[in-house]
Every structure is written in C-alpha cells, then in structure tokens.
Amino acid sequence: MKLTGKLADRDPFPSFSPAPWIAVLFPLSLSPLLILWAGLLGLAAAAADGRGNSTEHRPVTPINLDLYHSSIRLIGEINDLVRRHPDKLTMDTIKAGNKGYRSELAVVTYCRGRKDVDSNSKFRILLSFGQHGRELITSELALRILSILSEEEFLDKVDTVSLNSFLDKLVIKVVPMENLEGRKLVEGGDLCERRNGRGVDLNRNWSVDWGKKEKDYDPYEENPGVAPFSEPESQIMRKVATSFNPHIWVNVHSGMEVSPVSNICKYFFPQALK
Ligand SMILES: [Zn+2]
C-alpha cells in the first residue's frame, strides 16, 4: 500500500515491537505454581517479541508472512506438532454455527505422558489466543508455547528437569485461534478487523456486562451481537470452559498501541471505523 498525504512520511511503527498482553479471567490464588507459569508465559512472549524486532519499520501491508504464519499454516504446524507428540498432545476441532454462519476452533490438550488427563489431581489451565482477528502475534505465541511444551523449543535459563516436574502437575488446554473467520478477513486485507466473520466483537459477546456501553464505547468495534453467547465462537469457548472447568483461564491479546491496527487504523484505514 502506498501512503499519500500528511501521514505519508510518518513512520507508522516508530517503535513497532508487538508483544501480547495477558488477561487472567479466573485467578484463584497466587500460588508458586502460577507465578512460575506466568514467568514462562512472559519468557515465551519475550521470545516472540524478539522475533518481531527483527522486522522493524516494515510497511503496514501486506501481512509479513515471514513474521506471521497464515492461519492455515499455523493450524497445520500445530497439527504436525500434535502428530509428533502423541504422548503429550491431543487436538480436537469443535464446530458450531447458526443463521448461516459457522466457525470452528482447534483445541489442543497438553498433558505429559497422557497420565491422569481427566484427574482432579491436576491443575487445569485454559489458554486462549486470537480472539480478535487482527491480533496475529497472539496465535504465534500459542504455537511457540506448544513447541516449548513439546520440547521442540527450549527457554534459556530454565532448568528442564524442574520445568518438567512442574508441568507434570498440569493439564493445559490451548485454543490457538479463537476467531478463525475474523482472522480470514484480516488475511484477506481487512487488516483492522477485530470482530468475527459477521461483525461481532467476541470479547463483548460474553454474558458478563453484555450490552454495557462504556464512555468510549465504539459501536463498530464493540458490537456485542444480538444476545450473550449469540456467536458460535463464544458458544464453543463456553462449552470448552464449562467441561474443562479450569482453575485459571488466560485470554491473550496484543495491545492497541503495538498491533498493526487500531489507533493507527484510524489514520490509515478510516473506512474501517465507519
Ligand atoms: Zn484483543
């Protein structure tokens, strides 16, 4: 895309360094296990961030496929990981739809040795990524975490024996790409799109405070849908969460100032906000 006008000479990403941020939805307690887990997430995020730094100052469009996988490739890589590590990983694809709109979510379950996967003795963690289509880096983080859990990648300065001893106590479910249909729109050129494939913000489609309009409410960006859990993606997440009953649920997003969208979109893609 060639930029013209007043903003054409402005570097759109003067310090572009995408990094995911994390919202813990259901914290129970700050046990040492959780603190260690948060540290691991941070390390993995920093590693993903480091890869982002190598592409500073690149143009906004098109999506840099050297930096980001396409959705098909990313899910394919995760599928391959699961095939290579049946002792640790399984994957389910859950589909839902209504009123002519359908979506599907891949859900990966990690449990070392596949031992006691359904046992209440394990600590259960749900990690979800890519709820907003344009936040590409979060799904990259999901892939990286799964690679680390599969022991195909390793974290510096983390003792593998201690880590594995810790991981033995966990069952982790990972939803790498919660909003596949919205992501497809982004990959098709709607780089600012955060909503699902029919224009609903999945992060406003929960029943908690559904329809509540904050002072900065944006009816385009924050369309909550026709009712709580009206969207297939939200229905699938509810199903996953209620059946898995996690001790904590971490919903990973990338911030407005660092993703190649949002505030910058207001300048470069004003049509997206209409
Ligand atoms: Zn988000």
TrEMBL record:
One of its GO terms (molecular function) is zinc ion binding. Gene3D superfamilies: Zn peptidases. SMART domains: Zn_pept. The chain crosses the membrane at residues 20-48. InterPro entries: Peptidase_M14. Residues 67-274 form the Peptidase M14 domain. Keywords: Membrane, Transmembrane, Transmembrane helix. GO terms for cellular component: extracellular space. GO terms for biological process: proteolysis. It comes from the Eukaryota. Its cofactor is Zn(2+). The keyword Acetylation does not apply. Belongs to the peptidase M14 family. PANTHER family: OS02G0119300 PROTEIN, PROTEASE FAMILY M14 CARBOXYPEPTIDASE A,B. This is Peptidase M14 domain-containing protein. It comes from Punica granatum (Pomegranate).
